[in-house]
């Protein structure tokens, strides 16, 4: 057994260390190293919940959005909804529409950034799809080998999506325009028109480039499956057999119906689905079940805390850290639903809303031009790398479509009130349940004497990257890493093993040579000092962590949020 | 007119010239292209939310891709799409990522920029690859030819340093002072850093223009104007005594919903955010003062009017110092003038 450590895991938010204990898999073709057990830990602590105590409750949403600068908007929104629940005030229909528009644009940015910049490089390299690979050769590489063209466009499009957030929020990251009972931003026909114009360009890119890129990766995925099956002599279909977790999926719902906000609020008080929302709530364990807020508990047996284990967020006290606690190995808590491990994130949202088969229309909202549908069937009911990426692409398209409806609707509410002002409450508590792009997000506020008495945030990456719980169950990502192959090969060698044929023409770069994909990558990687990309050396053996990193990044880890109260 | 390098240096050196950078920023790349001697950048993340990295990714004219392919350079000597080290977008993970951090140190002397995002905390609160973030920083600082702290956290401590500051978090300059290291830190506060300000600062450093700093280490070209007095487009409303009292409703100055513009020094109204799209006050929200030392504690509750702040979390005995106190006095004068004017209007109407 070896102990392979990735520290730091880059291209994520925050600081994450992943430790993998290996075992040997013996097949007819040889002996292979795979992950036996995995352990995830976050490595940074700031103490936001402690800082919140005693403050004006209205400040909470501004402070908690600083939990994470990649997903600030969802923290703001979950926090604002918790404040509103405590203040007993409902935003106006126009405010809900404006929030949907702001957060819709935010979502589009986030899913694009993740798909192209964070998980994209490994996906693109494995799928032999240069537009997904960062332009390692600079501008020349982009122009001559079509290298990184989608990557470069993605940077441009995410910026435009964020310009919409800034238009309605003042700036991004960390928008500033929400208020208990509504919005501080005044919707105007001018803002709506500008947003429509930006959305038209963004929609076209999502419908054409993003969907096309995913289709290409899906095609290459079959080849990856065949090649890996042949090398290892195991039954491996492709990236759908990489990163399988528990098959339990939790979603709180997203984008309420502005005319049915009572349905949205109902799950704060009794089990439900939020069926009127664009993305619905639910707890999937092979079949669809109503989401029940009472079933959430956080466990700390393997976390460095002296707090009581197994408490509901409304009962939890401020963290009591204890570095010396025996058996503990992480500063993340382990949230559980109905005492079981649930995965959260885009795949959980899609499954809880649409089941295992999705069909999203690709009709140009402006011209009406019909491009058919984005259709996808979940390939692994336990979840997988490719299913998680598919869900992210599907959600981006779904929201890009819906943005036009919200903008049209908002027009008919112009001139109506955007805020029902509510400044304070003496004593009450409230939950906010929303979804960050990376998963289900809960904020809880307790107000006493007009001040914050207690605050709890149960965040996506604590669900996905939690340590073992009191029952010994591994967290979702820890489970998903089990069985992952750690090839003793370089990235270029893996590429050549999957694509041995020589079909990359280097003549645009002034070299009259046709080489294989791995051969083409080798000089670029070497020149950039990346020849040893994703290689970890242990006891003289070199393990390639590319597949493990794909599994980790498929969950879109956001560690500053997971360790908002913790440290490692 | 194409901005030459020579003129660019002159312009950057000029004080109070923040406006030109908005006008000319598309020419920055052209000026920098003349500077073929590429620079090496290491971007370290400590107790941060990564918001500054994301903000940097929102640059336009030049956009982030132009910057990374035309201005910066990695260890290869090629113009590439990645700095030597930047945790959030770097291709390398694990041990190779640590190697890249090390290699940055051997970049050409005089050409190494260190960017720090996030607070520095007591030992053990941020550990990367088994090494405390404090050590990562001290190590890198020794090799850095220019140091830029980005965002409220790395400059003045920001949210993690807010009361009761459970991790003893502080900004980079304070940390270095405590460690007895004397090296200039360019502070770019705001929460997050304004991408434009960072790009222009980088450009100024690379091109050899002296960036003049105020008492808090902030470039004067961005932080020497008072947002409320000098730049706010809603100032006429304030002078007329016309205020918004419900966020999102009505026309007027945001002062009564807690705007901290009067005690905030930043060029947000001019430069704006996200490709000059908007800024907090323009969108309708109050300014929360995130450019200032002492934020958030001295500036919260965020929805309380400036004169009411002394009754909240902040220590009133410390409030009266420096510009904060002077501005409060100024607001007092204005309030008197406003009420006189209003009384006069009432009298005239009668």
UniProtKB/TrEMBL annotation, chain A:
It is found in: Cell envelope. Keywords: Iron, Magnesium, Metal-binding, Nickel, Oxidoreductase. Gene3D superfamilies: Cytochrome-c3 Hydrogenase, chain B. The keyword Glycoprotein does not apply. Fe cation binds at residues 71, 561. Its cofactor is Ni(2+); Fe cation. Pfam families: NiFeSe_Hases (PF00374). Mg(2+) binds at residues 49, 564. SUPFAM superfamilies: HydB/Nqo4-like. GO terms for molecular function: cytochrome-c3 hydrogenase activity; ferredoxin hydrogenase activity; nickel cation binding. Ni(2+) binds at residues 68, 71, 558. Its EC number is 1.12.2.1. Belongs to the [NiFe]/[NiFeSe] hydrogenase large subunit family. This is Cytochrome-c3 hydrogenase. It comes from Ferroglobus placidus (strain DSM 10642 / AEDII12DO).
TrEMBL record, chain B:
One of its GO terms (cellular component) is ferredoxin hydrogenase complex. [4Fe-4S] cluster 1 binds at residues 49, 52, 153, 191. Residues 223-303 form the Cytochrome-c3 hydrogenase C-terminal domain. InterPro entries: Cytochrome-c3_hydrogenase_C (IPR027394), NADH_UbQ_OxRdtase-like_20kDa (IPR006137), NiFe-Hase_small_C_sf (IPR037148), NiFe_Hase_small_N_sf (IPR037024), NiFe_hydrogenase_ssu (IPR001821), TAT_signal (IPR006311), TAT_signal_bac_arc (IPR019546). Its EC number is 1.12.99.6. Residues 49-204 form the NADH:ubiquinone oxidoreductase-like 20kDa subunit domain. PROSITE patterns: TAT. The keyword Lipoprotein does not apply. [4Fe-4S] cluster 2 binds at residues 228, 232, 253, 259. Keywords: 3Fe-4S, 4Fe-4S, Iron, Iron-sulfur, Metal-binding, Oxidoreductase, Signal. It is an enzyme of class 1 (oxidoreductase). [3Fe-4S] cluster binds at residues 268, 287, 290. Gene3D superfamilies: Cytochrome-c3 hydrogenase, C-terminal domain, NADH:ubiquinone oxidoreductase-like, 20kDa subunit. GO terms for biological process: anaerobic respiration. One of its GO terms (molecular function) is electron transfer activity. Its cofactor is [3Fe-4S] cluster; [4Fe-4S] cluster. NCBIfam families: hydA, TAT_signal_seq. Belongs to the [NiFe]/[NiFeSe] hydrogenase small subunit family. PANTHER family: HYDROGENASE-2 SMALL CHAIN, NIFE / NIFESE HYDROGENASE SMALL SUBUNIT FAMILY MEMBER. This is Hydrogenase (NiFe) small subunit HydA. It comes from Ferroglobus placidus (strain DSM 10642 / AEDII12DO).
């Amino acid at each position: 057994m070896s102990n392979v450590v990735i520290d730091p895991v880059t291209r994520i938010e925050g600081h994450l260390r992943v430790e993998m204990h290996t075992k040997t898999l013996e097949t007819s073709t040889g002996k292979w190293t795979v992950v036996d057990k995995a352990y995830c830990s976050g490595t940074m602590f700031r103490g936001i919940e402690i800082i919140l105590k005693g403050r004006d409750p209205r400040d909470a949403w501004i402070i908690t959005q600083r939990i994470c600068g990649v997903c600030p908007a969802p923290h703001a929104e979950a926090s604002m909804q918790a404040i509103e629940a405590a203040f007993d005030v409902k935003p106006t229909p126009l405010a809900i529409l404006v929030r949907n528009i702001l957060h819709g644009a935010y979502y589009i940015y986030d899913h694009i950034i993740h798909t192209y910049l964070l998980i994209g490089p490994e996906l693109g390299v494995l799928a032999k799809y240069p537009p997904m690979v960062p332009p390692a050769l600079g501008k020349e590489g982009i122009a001559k080998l079509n290298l990184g063209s989608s990557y470069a466009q993605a940077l441009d499009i995410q910026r435009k999506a964020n310009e919409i957030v800034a238009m309605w929020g003042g700036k991004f990251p960390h928008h500033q325009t929400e208020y208990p009972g509504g919005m501080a931003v005044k919707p105007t026909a001018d803002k709506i028109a500008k947003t429509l114009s930006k959305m038209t360009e963004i929609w076209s890119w999502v419908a054409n480039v993003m969907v096309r890129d995913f289709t290409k990766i899906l095609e290459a995925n079959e080849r990856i499956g065949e090649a890996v099956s042949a090398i290892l002599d195991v039954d491996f279909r492709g990236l759908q057999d990489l990163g399988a977790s528990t098959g339990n999926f939790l979603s709180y719902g997203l984008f309420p119906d502005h005319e049915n906000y009572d349905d949205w609020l109902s799950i704060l008080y009794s089990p439900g689905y939020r069926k009127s929302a664009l993305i619905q709530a639910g707890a999937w364990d092979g079949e669809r079940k109503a989401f029940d807020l009472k079933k959430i508990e956080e466990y700390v047996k393997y976390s460095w805390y002296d707090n009581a284990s197994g408490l509901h967020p409304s009962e939890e006290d401020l963290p009591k850290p204890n570095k010396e606690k025996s058996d503990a190995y992480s500063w993340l808590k382990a949230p559980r639903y109905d005492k079981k491990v649930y995965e959260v994130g885009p795949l959980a949202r899609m499954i809880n809303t649409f089941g295992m088969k999705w069909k999203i229309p690709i009709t140009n909202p402006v011209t009406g031009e019909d491009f058919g549908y984005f259709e996808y069937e979940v390939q692994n009911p336990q979840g997988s790398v490719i299913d998680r990426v598919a869900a992210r692409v599907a959600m981006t398209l779904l929201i890009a479509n819906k943005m036009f409806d919200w903008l049209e609707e908002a027009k008919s509410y112009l001139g109506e009130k955007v805020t029902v002002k509510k400044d304070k409450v003496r004593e009450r508590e409230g939950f906010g349940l929303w979804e960050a792009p990376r998963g289900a997000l809960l904020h809880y506020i307790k107000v006493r004497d007009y001040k914050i008495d207690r605050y709890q945030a149960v965040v996506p990456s604590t669900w996905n990257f939690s340590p073992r719980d009191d029952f010994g169950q591994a967290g979702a990502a820890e489970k998903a890493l089990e069985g992952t192959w750690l090839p003793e090969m370089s990235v270029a060698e893996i590429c050549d093993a999957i694509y041995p044929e020589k079909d990359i023409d280097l003549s645009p770069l002034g070299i009259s040579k046709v080489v294989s994909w791995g051969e083409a990558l080798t000089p670029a990687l070497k020149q950039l000092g990346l020849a040893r990309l994703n290689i970890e050396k242990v006891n003289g053996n070199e393990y390639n962590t590319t597949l493990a990193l794909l599994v980790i990044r498929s969950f879109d880890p956001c560690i500053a949020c997971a360790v908002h109260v913790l440290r490692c | 007119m194409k901005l030459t390098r020579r003129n660019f240096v002159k312009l950057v050196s000029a004080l109070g010239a923040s406006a030109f950078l908005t006008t000319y920023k598309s020419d920055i790349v052209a000026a920098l292209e003349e500077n073929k001697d590429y620079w090496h950048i290491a971007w370290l993340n400590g107790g941060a939310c990564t918001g500054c990295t994301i903000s940097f990714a929102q640059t336009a004219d030049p956009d982030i891709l132009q910057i990374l392919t035309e201005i910066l350079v990695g260890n290869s000597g090629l113009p590439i799409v990645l700095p030597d080290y930047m945790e959030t977008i770097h291709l390398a993970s694990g041990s190779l990522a640590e190697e890249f951090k090390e290699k940055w140190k051997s970049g050409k002397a005089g050409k190494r920029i260190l960017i720090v995002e996030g607070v520095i905390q007591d030992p053990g609160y941020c550990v990367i690859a088994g090494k405390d973030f404090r050590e990562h920083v001290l190590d890198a600082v020794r090799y850095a030819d220019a140091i830029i702290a980005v965002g409220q956290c790395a400059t003045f401590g920001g949210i993690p340093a807010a009361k009761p500051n459970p991790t003893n978090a502080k900004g980079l300059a304070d940390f270095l002072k405590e460690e007895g290291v004397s090296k200039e830190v360019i502070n770019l506060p705001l929460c997050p850093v304004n991408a434009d300000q960072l790009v222009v600062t980088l450009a100024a450093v690379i091109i050899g223009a002296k960036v003049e700093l105020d008492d808090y280490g902030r470039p004067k070209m961005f932080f020497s104007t008072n947002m409320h007095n000098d730049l706010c487009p809603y100032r006429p409303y304030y002078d007329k005594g016309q205020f918004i009292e419900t966020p999102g409703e009505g026309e007027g100055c945001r002062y009564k919903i807690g705007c901290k513009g009067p005690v905030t020094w930043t060029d947000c109204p001019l430069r704006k955010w996200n490709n000059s799209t908007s800024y907090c006050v323009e969108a309708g929200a109050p300014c929360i003062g995130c450019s200032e030392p002492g934020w958030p504690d001295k500036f919260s509750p965020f929805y309380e009017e400036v004169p009411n702040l002394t009754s909240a979390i902040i220590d009133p005995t410390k409030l009266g110092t420096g510009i904060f106190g002077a501005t409060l006095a100024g607001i007092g004068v204005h309030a008197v003038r406003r009420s006189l004017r209003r009384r006069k209007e009432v009298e005239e109407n009668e």
